[in-house]
Each structure stands twice: as structure tokens, then as C-alpha cells.
TrEMBL record:
It holds the Pfam family adh_short. This is Uncharacterized protein. The keyword Disulfide bond does not apply. Belongs to the short-chain dehydrogenases/reductases (SDR) family. It comes from Strongylocentrotus purpuratus. Keywords: Oxidoreductase. InterPro entries: NAD(P)-bd_dom_sf, SDR_fam. One of its GO terms (molecular function) is oxidoreductase activity. It comes from the Eukaryota. SUPFAM superfamilies: NAD(P)-binding Rossmann-fold domains. PANTHER family: RETINOL DEHYDROGENASE (PTHR24320), SHORT-CHAIN DEHYDROGENASE_REDUCTASE FAMILY PROTEIN (PTHR24320:SF152). The lineage of its organism: Eukaryota, Metazoa, Echinodermata, Eleutherozoa, Echinozoa.
Amino acid sequence: MGSSLSSQPELPEVDLKGKVIIVTGANAGIGYETAKSLAQMGAKVILACRSETKALGAIDRMKQEHNEEQEVKGRSKVKSQVEELDLVYMNLDLGSLASTTNFAESFKVRGTPLHALICNAGMAYGPDEPSVDGLEIHFQVNYLSHFLLILQLLPVLKSSGPNSRVVLVASLAYRFARWNEEDIQGTNENKTTIYSNTKLYQIMQMLALERRLEGSGIGIFSVHPGIVETELVKREGQRIPMMTSFFARLGMSTHFLRNPFKGALTTLHAVANPIYDGKTALYFENSKPHSLTSLPRDRWKQEHLWKYSVECLRNYITEDMLDIFTS
């Protein structure tokens, strides 16, 4: 889901040497291009993925592509700052709150700074069965586990600033969400609405965090990558609604879809463009800040979602994690 292919501003040359960045779901699609480009800019990039095999395969491909691009001037999509890419795999299964906690703890044990957290992983039209935690699976993978990850890593982001950033890969689909405080997880909704709701929640989370992190030096952004040709619209056997499938296939046949790098470009602007230093709570479309509709800006709904989310995570968060918002 998304908007038309209007022009995107070019990304300025950026040197990220010395920066550490986590990208969830970095083994394919937008996440792959995001991780590769940030590593080419000089960052150490943590690929936070569920499948070790796919993640290590992605790392090998990134390094091979980088070496090939180095041999031909102008072939690289971003200005490369390094000869070799610094890429690390760490296991993260967002379908499990325990796995999400283990990832955060394992990262903190490393003792490295964290300059950016990119919450890119997501799913649509997945199984009807709940997660291992008994939660609606799209709600957990797209939104709640990322919420937990942010809470657990905020102290590291705060100490690594100024200008540390959290980037939430949301979607224009938030405009098709249906707010129901009696059914936040959307267990009685169709898959298209559930997906849209999770993207709405990411944007509302950004705005709730903005208030709580004022003066912290952490920038919170959300982005709509556009209609992107990823595995989601190619995958065989998924129960994608007829009209959604039709428009996805139409996009591919008419070249309306963005390739994954063009989709990643909006994320790259949000995480690396220095013009956004000191900024926060920006929503991006076509690599530029864009206005939001009234629904995600409703403060009462933001706070209702925040309290509900904290309650869902009561066994995985501590008072210390929430104290950062008062310190």
C-alpha cells in the first residue's frame, strides 16, 4: 500500500564510520538494502533476524555486491566510505517476547554504543494462530515486540547520543486503520485492517515517545517506504485478499512498484541525513517529512495504546525501563 512514485531527494554523502546500527528484518527487501547501504557508509550494522541461514546468506551477498560495485565507478547506490563491510548477525524472533528480550540483553552485554535502531521487520497476511505469547501475531511482530525492543535499548541509545535515532518502518496503510479500544489487537478484524492498525500504532508510538523523550537527544521517526516490490507480494500460497493481490501484481506489471533500494531510501534519509539532527517525531513519505491525518495525532488514543502495550509487556519490562522517561 502506498502513494505514487513522486520524486525522492538524493541522499547526501554521509560518513557513518564509528556508528553502530541495528536493522530488524535485514535479510531481504527493504531491510537488506538499508543494512547494506548503511554498512557502505561506514556503520557497523547488526542484522537482527530470525533465520541465521538467511541472515548469513544476506551478509555474503552484501559483501559480494559491495566488492563488485567497488570495481565499477558509479555503480554503488550510495557513496561508499569503506573497503570492507562491517556486518554482524544476531538472532531475533519478534514472534517471541522472550527472544526479543534475549536479543536486547545480548546486545547490551557487548558493551557497544547504539546510534540507531531501525524497526523494519514486519508481516502481513500471516497465520491465524496467535504467537507463542498468545497475542495476535501481526500485532506482536509489527508493533509490540518492537515497542519492547525500544524500551530495552533506550538507555543505550540515550548514552550514545546526541542525535541517536529510532526509525519505525510504518506505512501509508495507517490511513485505512480502524481504531477500537475494546479490540486493540484486532482479533475480530480482517488481515488488511490488522496490518493497517499495526502501522497506525507505530506512528502513535512515535508521538507518545516524543513527549516522553523530550530533551533526551533521541530522534524518533516513522516512514512510509512506498509501494515496494518485496517478497510479500511475490510469495506464493499466501492468502492475500483479491484486490490487494490484484493491485500488487498490477504494480509489478506496470513498473509502478519501487525496487527495494528506492523503498529503503526513505529510511536512509530518516536515519542518516544530517539535516534531521536535533529533530524528532517526523513522518516521512518519498524521503521527505509529510503531514499526518488526525487519527494518529489523537493524544488520548496514544496514551490508551501506550498503557495497553505496557500491560501486554508486564512480564518483560521493569520500573527501571520506564524510569528513563522521568530522568
